[in-house]
Structures are given as structure tokens and as C-alpha cells.
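> call design_seq(struct)
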């Protein structure tokens, strides 16, 4: 019998040492196949490609979730001047970042960004149910120094249009939008919601959103709580939202229960900011606690809090196996 609650990963996987040492297109294909096989052998229901092709040794703190998307865009300059740095650093919201991901100098276009090609390469390597991840427009616009649009909302809307155009050509079973800045800036939720929904509405399969309080160099970088985002979460045009919970604890479940029932949950039950591997009993207990508050029918999947990219492969692999074993224990499988 198929499980009621699916297991999935958020997206990223640690870059294998041999891929970093001898990068090539063939090595990337081989490594992606390995990432799929690890998840399949563990019993993950919805697998992801590991985002290995997004990693940049010059930007190791975010695993390419930002620079991979913005640097190919047209009218985004990546040569950063001293004046650019001074302007960017005057914004306290991005103080954790040493410099902008790029400088917007005109009306942006997709440039050489080609998400459908990346999806197509990965899709050939697995027959499993698969998700494809896309960094969201709010996160991307917050890391850019904008010298063209009248406000950040305008830039966010423009990025959303570009992502939506590409997402329409991606036939992954789940298309997941990743947003790691809005939880710390709920005052921007209204205009961020409009832009994120532009991308979600372009998804032809199952749309999902992943939200966390940051995973910059393996650290939380934002303060806040989910209670301030109830209206935002309720307004997402998503089938489910994958939330960081394990690292924070389940103390916010009563707030999450207020979210519109049409939006289901992806429960973060694996702490990716810790090297300690959870036991199946711990994971089952976290699921049970959430099910008692939210209702088991509202839980679409269980997952890590965020991507695995900062962990050693041996730890990530054990956490992946524990995730499935904990879900099975909860369901009595």
C-alpha cells in the first residue's frame, strides 16, 4: 500500500569530492545519477537532482541557489565596483552577504538562464517521481543591487515573469519554489506573495514552496516566527509548503494550524544544521506531534528542514534513510 505521507528532500546534496576535483559534463551526469540512486535505495518517494550543477567554488555559502539564477540574466552586471559594494552594504537586510550577486543596469531578461535544459538532463537519469527546485523571485531580488527599477517590488515582479516563462516548460512531478528571505521580513509578504504566485501559477504539475530562516554557511541568519506569515502562507497558490521545523522545534504548530486548509504541509523533521543523525523513533514522534495538532490529512510530506549541501555525504545519506524509516514507523509500515 502506498504511504499516506510522502518522503522527499528539499533539493541540494553535498557535492561529491570527485566531481569538485574533476568537473565535467559527464562527471556531473554521473554524480546526479548517484544522487538519485541514493534516494531511491533509501525509499524516498519524491527525489531531487541534488542541484550539483549550481555549485560554484567562488560562492560556497549558498550552494548556487542565488548566483546560478541571477548571473546569466540579461542586464545584470557581475563585475562589482567599490561604489556598488558601498551601496549594497548600506542595506542592513543583507548584512550577512559580503557583496551583491549582481547589479541590475536595465530591464532584465532571461539571458542565458535555461532551467528547462537542466531539468531535461536530470529527468533522463531517473524514472522516479521527481521534483525540480527554483529559487524564488523575492529571494533573488533581495540579493541584487538594483540601479534600474523604481523599487524592489518592481524588480521582484520582473524576475517572477522570467522564472514563470521557464517553469511552464518544466514537467517535473513537483516544481518547488525556494524562498529563504521572506520569513525574516514579513513586512514584505504582501508584494512578495503576488510575485511568488506568478511563478506558482505557471507550474503545470504540483506547485510547492519551501521556506526557511536561512542556511547560509550552515547557519540560521534570520530571526522571526511563522505566526507572522499565516496570511502569506494561506495565500500561496501551492499544493504544500515545506517548512523548517526540526531545528526550531514544534512550538509553532498551533500557529500553523491557522493556515488555510487548502495548503498542506511538508514537515521539516530532519535538522540539517546538526551532524547528529535522528533516530526513526525521533522522526516518528515529530510527525505524530504535528499530526495531533494539524491533522494527519494536512501533512503532504516529511522532509529535511533545508538542503543537505553543507553536510558530509555520510551524514546526509544516513539522515535520508532515517527519514524514510521514521515515516514508515509512524504509519506502521
Amino acid at each position: 500500500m502506498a504511504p499516506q505521507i510522502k518522503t522527499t528532500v528539499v533539493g541540494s546534496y553535498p557535492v561529491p569530492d570527485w566531481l569538485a576535483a574533476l568537473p565535467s559534463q559527464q562527471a556531473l551526469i554521473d554524480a546526479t545519477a548517484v544522487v538519485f540512486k541514493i534516494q531511491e535505495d533509501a525509499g524516498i518517494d519524491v527525489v531531487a537532482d541534488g542541484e550539483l550543477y549550481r555549485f560554484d567554488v567562488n560562492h560556497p555559502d549558498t550552494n548556487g541557489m542565488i548566483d546560478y539564477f541571477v548571473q546569466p540574466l540579461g542586464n545584470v552586471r557581475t563585475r562589482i565596483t567599490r561604489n556598488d559594494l558601498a551601496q549594497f552594504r548600506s542595506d542592513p537586510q543583507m548584512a550577512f552577504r559580503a557583496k551583491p550577486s549582481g547589479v541590475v543596469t536595465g530591464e532584465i531578461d532571461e539571458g542565458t538562464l535555461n532551467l528547462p535544459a537542466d531539468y531535461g538532463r536530470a529527468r533522463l537519469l531517473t524514472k522516479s517521481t521527481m521534483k525540480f527546485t527554483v529559487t524564488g523571485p523575492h529571494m533573488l531580488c533581495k540579493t541584487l543591487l538594483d540601479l534600474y527599477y523604481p523599487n524592489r517590488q518592481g524588480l521582484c515582479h520582473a524576475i517572477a515573469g522570467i522564472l514563470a516563462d521557464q517553469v511552464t516548460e518544466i514537467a517535473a512531478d513537483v516544481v518547488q519554489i525556494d524562498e529563504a528571505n521572506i520569513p525574516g521580513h514579513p513586512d514584505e509578504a504582501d508584494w512578495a506573495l503576488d510575485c511568488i504566485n506568478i511563478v506558482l501559477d505557471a507550474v503545470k504539475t504540483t506547485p510547492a514552496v519551501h521556506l526557511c530562516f536561512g542556511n547560509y554557511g550552515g547557519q540560521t541568519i534570520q530571526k522571526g516566527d511563522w505566526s507572522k506569515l499565516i496570511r502569506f502562507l494561506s495565500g500561496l497558490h501551492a499544493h504544500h509548503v515545506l517548512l523548517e521545523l526540526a531545528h526550531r522545534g514544534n512550538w509553532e504548530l498551533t500557529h500553523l494550524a491557522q493556515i488555510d486548509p487548502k495548503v498542506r504541509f511538508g514537515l521539516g523533521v530532519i535538522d540539517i544544521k546538526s551532524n547528529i543523525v535522528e533516530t526513526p523513533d525521533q522522526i516518528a514522534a515529530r510527525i505524530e506531534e504535528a499530526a495531533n495538532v494539524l491533522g494527519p490529512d494536512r501533512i503532504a510530506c516529511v522532509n529535511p528542514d533545508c538542503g543537505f549541501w553543507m553536510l558530509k555525504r555520510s551524514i546526509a545519506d544516513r539522515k535520508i534513510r532515517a527519514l524514510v524509516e521514521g515515516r514508515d514507523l509512524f504509519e506502521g509500515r
